[in-house]
Structure formats: C-alpha cells, structure tokens
From TrEMBL:
It comes from Streptomyces inusitatus. Its EC number is 3.2.1.14. It comes from the Bacteria. This is chitinase. It is an enzyme of class 3 (hydrolase).
Length: 481
C-alpha cells in the first residue's frame, strides 16, 4: 500500500474522520481512503478538501480519487464529515507527493513583450524601435495595451494614439511618413507594418490593465455581450487580420475579510464566452496581477476553472514591494524577488510562491508565463538602522514616470547594482535605493522557470529595456535549449 507523506497527529475526537491514506498515487491522480467517525450519528456525505480548504468533491463513501494533479507536486488532503445534525468535522490533512517528474518547459517557450500606447510616444519610444533595436525578431508574441472595458464592453483606449496619430518617415516602421488621407494611422497602422516585416510575430490586443476604464462587474453581468464586443473590435475591417488574439489584463482585488464565491475576481464566464466568440484558432490569454501580500487573491480565485478556456496566464511577478505600498515595511526590499529569505520583509511575496500556489491549484505549469520587470522602483533619503543594519526610508525616489518609478534603461547607468536580494538586483547609491532586474538576474529566473516547467516569460513594458534590448536578449538566450 502506498501512503502519503506524514501529517500531524490527530486529536482523539470521535466526531472526526480518520486521516486520509493514499492507497494509489499516479502522476496526476491520488486515491484516498479514510475511516469514518466513531461517534454515533448519520453522515450525509464527506467533502474532500485540498491544500488547506479548497473543496474538490463530495462522496457518500470513504474513498475518493482526486484527478487533474501535477506530477511531482506535494498536496495536502482532508476528509470533512458532514452530519445530518451538528457541525462538519474535518480530519487532519495528509500530505501526498504525486509521482513522475516535473513537466518540461515547452520546446518553443513564449517570449512576449508588452507595448503600451499610453506614454510611449511622449517618451520617444515607437514601434519602429522594436525593429531597429532587434527586439521584434526575438519576440514570439507582442501584446498591445490597453483597451478599455467600459460598460461591460471592449473599447479602444486612446483612439487618437491608436488610429490617428501621424508618424514621420524617421519614426515609422515602413520608413514612409503618414498622410492625412490614409484610412488608418496611429499605432495600429504601425503594428500592421511590423507584422508585415515579422509575419511570425503573434499580436494580441489587451483589454483592462492600469490607467483604463475597467468595469469587470458590468462585463460579468452579460459575458456573451462582452465577448461579442471584443470579437467585433478584433475583426474591425480597418485592421482585420492584424491581431492573433485577445488578452484580458485583470488586477485581482484584495479580499477584505472573506473572498466572495468564485474568488475576488471571477473570470470563467468571460473567458468561456470569449473563447466561443474568437474561436479556437486564435489566442486567448489573461494577465493577472495581485495586490502586494494578498495571496488569497490567487488561491481563492476561479483561475483553475478558467484555465480550460485560455492558452496561458501572464503572471505579473513583480511590484511585490514598492515605495507606494500602503503596508508599513520596516526595511527596503526588492520588488521582484524570486524567493523569500530572512533579509526580505515578508515570506510569500515572491515569484516562487505565486507560481507554486497556482500550480498547486491545478493549473499546468506550461500555462504560466512569468513577468520580468523592465521598470525600477526606488526610495530616497535612505538611512541604515544602527541596530539591525536594515535600510529604511519612507519616501519614494524622484522617478521620471511617477514617484519612485523609472525605467531600467535610465536607472542602471546612474545607480548601478550593488548586490542581489532574492535573485533581483538592488542598487544603493548615495541616499537612494533602487531595485530592478538585470541580464544576470533574468538568467537566474529563467533557470528557475525551466526547472519548474513554466511556459515562458514576458517583459512588463518593452520601452523600459535598453535600446539594444539587454533584458530581452538575456531572456531569449537563457530560454534557448
């Protein structure tokens, strides 16, 4: 008989079932068996829970087979007896590791970059720069952001920037200046020229994201109408055929006390209808981000159910710590740590925790694309605590794009890395402290992604990389077989 890993000892309580025993373990399934409570009383059924409380099924017997697991992962299971009268009573949790090996990274991993219409033109960054800097040839996918979700419908974020902005011969992908008489100008025309040069590059239009009208509540009230509006926009005759799919950029809400049914942000109805509207031949992805320490935003969500309808999730594995955080942080910390340690403020706010929690929920690692930040967060008037040695500050640095926020390309030359924390670079220069990724830390993170069978990686915003694409070059080199 196969057994799970040892769990904690159970108190002598006759109302509780015995601890589950794993009688059969495969790569993706675990068959559990337990003894019923010894206390008298009728048991209506048992609930089987996974990883601390996720209800995965019910049975009237004392055996249950859990399916849809990931090879070589540790799970915990418990049986909860639901009586006709009285309160449910849980067994202790039994830890079980599935057999097999971790799924390998896909042979052709996703290498994606984000191009945003907001601020790019004003900062002198154009679609053409992706060609001249060599980035377009290295990418497998490019996401254009961000469209709106207003009144439950998809819409264009900035119509002037997307459709009407004129480009000169010098900053146009084609080398031809736009004219007032042409039917389409703006970023969509530039993206069409890019696609003509790089036909292998897959383009996605992202809706939602930061700084836009985002009304997911209205979209969930009529998912079919929402999906139809997105599909119509994708197939508009003025740019039909340009985009290969749609991305939804969802910021998961923080649960204040207990998450509502379906999690803090329910997306399954939206992606189910979107998949039907855009068809199986086009891509459908979801970019997910959580607020700082609110880990339950992912673990109590409906992301596992929604995964059946999406090609992958882009996980924003950055911004875990920053100077605008409304949580009191007694010491400065890197904003995209790969893992936590004693010298980083809080356990669980890191890349590893997010990716591991999502796979433990049943999402295949190949469907998880990790985010690599091209932006930096910084503090100023930094002091060192004489007792602990920790660096402290309550003020954001003067960033070019907002308090404490700047690009890798501009911060690194003036505040070079002085070390690493959690495999993310930190730079303490004078009275300032900045944190960002570098080619070296990108290489280290990709090694982790390969080891754990993730689907690839994406850069948070291509304009933050250097003109020659240092971070993207490091990413593609590390992802190479």
């Amino acid at each position: 008989m196969l057994t799970g890993l040892a769990g904690p000892a159970q108190a002598d309580d006759s109302a509780h079932p015995g601890a589950p025993v794993a009688v059969e373990i495969t790569d993706t399934t675990v068959t559990l068996s337990w003894t019923p409570p010894t206390a008298p009383g009728e048991i209506l059924h048992y609930q089987v829970v996974k990883n601390g409380g996720t209800n995965i099924g019910t049975t009237t017997g004392t055996t249950f087979t859990v399916t849809g697991l990931i090879p070589n992962r540790v799970y915990s299971f418990a049986a909860v007896a639901v009586p006709r009268t009285g309160h449910p009573a849980s067994s202790v949790h039994t830890r079980v590791r599935t057999t097999g090996t971790t799924p390998p990274m896909p042979a052709k991993p996703v290498v994606m970059g984000v191009f945003t219409e907001k601020g790019s033109h004003e900062r002198g960054f154009h679609v053409k720069d992706l060609v001249t800097g060599g980035s377009a040839a290295k990418l497998t996918h490019l996401t254009y952001g961000y469209g709106t979700v207003d009144g439950g419908r998809c819409g264009i974020g900035d119509e002037h920037a997307a459709l009407e902005r004129s480009f000169t011969a010098g900053n146009s992908v084609s080398g031809q200046a736009d004219t007032a008489s042409q039917p389409l100008r703006g970023y969509l025309n530039q993206l069409r020229a890019l696609k003509n040069r790089q036909p292998q590059l897959k383009l996605l239009w992202s809706f939602g994201g930061p700084g836009q009208n985002v009304d997911w509540t209205a979209a969930r009230q009529n998912p079919a109408a929402f999906a139809a509006s997105c599909a119509r926009l994708l197939d508009d005759p003025r740019w039909a055929g340009l985009f290969d799919g749609i991305d939804l950029a969802v910021e998961f809400e923080r649960c204040q006390s207990a998450c509502p049914p379906g999690g803090p942000t329910t997306i399954t109805p939206l992606v189910r209808e979107l998949r039907s509207a855009v068809g199986g031949g086009r891509l459908l992805t979801v970019t997910i981000g959580r607020w700082g320490p609110a880990k339950q935003s992912y673990t109590e969500s409906d992301l596992p159910r929604a995964a059946a309808h999406v090609d992958w999730y882009n996980v924003k594995t950055f911004d875990y710590y920053h100077p605008l955080d409304d949580m009191w942080v007694p010491k400065l910390a890197p904003h995209a740590p790969l893992n936590s340690s004693w010298d980083i403020w809080e356990w669980g706010r890191d890349v590893h925790s997010d990716m591991w929690n999502l796979t433990e929920k049943g999402i295949h690692p190949n469907k998880l694309i990790a985010g690599i930040p091209t932006h930096a967060w910084g503090w100023k008037n930094v002091t060192r605590d004489p007792w602990s040695g920790w660096l402290r500050s309550t003020e954001p640095a003067d960033g070019a794009f907002g308090p404490g926020l700047d690009d890798y390309r501009t911060v690194k030359p003036r505040c070079a890395p002085t070390g690493e924390l959690g495999k993310t670079a930190v730079a303490h220069c004078g009275s300032e402290y900045w944190t960002y990724d570098t080619p070296a830390t990108v290489t280290g993170k990709v090694a982790y992604l390969k080891e754990n069978g993730m689907g690839g990686a994406f850069l948070s915003n291509l304009r933050g990389d250097t003109a020659g694409g240092e971070l993207l070059t490091a990413l593609t080199s590390a992802l190479a077989p």
